[in-house]
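Late entry, evening session. Most of the bench is empty. Finally got around to the prediction I had been postponing all week. Sequence below, unchanged from the version circulated by S.P.
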Amino acid sequence: MSVNVRFWDRLARRYARMPLRDPETYEEKLTRTRAHFSPEMEVFEFGCGTGSTALAHAPFVKQVTAIDCSANMIEIAQEKALAEGIDNVRFEVARLEDMGLRPGCYDMVMAHNVLHLLEDRKGALAHVHEMLRPNGVFVSSTACAASAPLLFRIIVKLGHMVQLLPLFHLLTEDRLKADIEAAGFKIVDEWLPEGGRSALFLIARKVG
């Protein structure tokens, strides 16, 4: 079992009990995403955690498929779906790179708080591009922590080196946007909440 899976499995129940740090920012991201919905859309989310975002969007689309590498996270997500009576979300234990590539099978792909944790970000973005139908939408929210306090940067690097913390790329906003555009997307909405301490929220549309 990888350090990433061990970390998130161990954290899952405590993570599920944590209150939202910034409910207003979260609601704004939901609203901006829903502006691109239609009732017949099929949506895919990777790195879904305990499923909160997938479940919040489910009433507005036809189907959501959501995956996470942590079995404990997915177990909690399934419990929440059952408790809320939501039956158009399918949760699976999987990684993006393990998913069979079926080109053009989704209208939207979401990746919240996950791109900075991936070993192969560019490969993941290429995979997402292939999964989307023409003019499909990619929605992401990503920590860009290249200019975070030095102590934080040291902790995340050393923590991963000793296999206590998952991989955490210290991205800049420009690097992230360049990678998304290079993968064949046009950014159509960009939002960094006031103060710049939250994740960079991007909505991009597939081109070509």
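Two things to note before I forget:
The chain has one domain: 3-206.
The chain has seven helices and seven strands.
Will write this up properly tomorrow.
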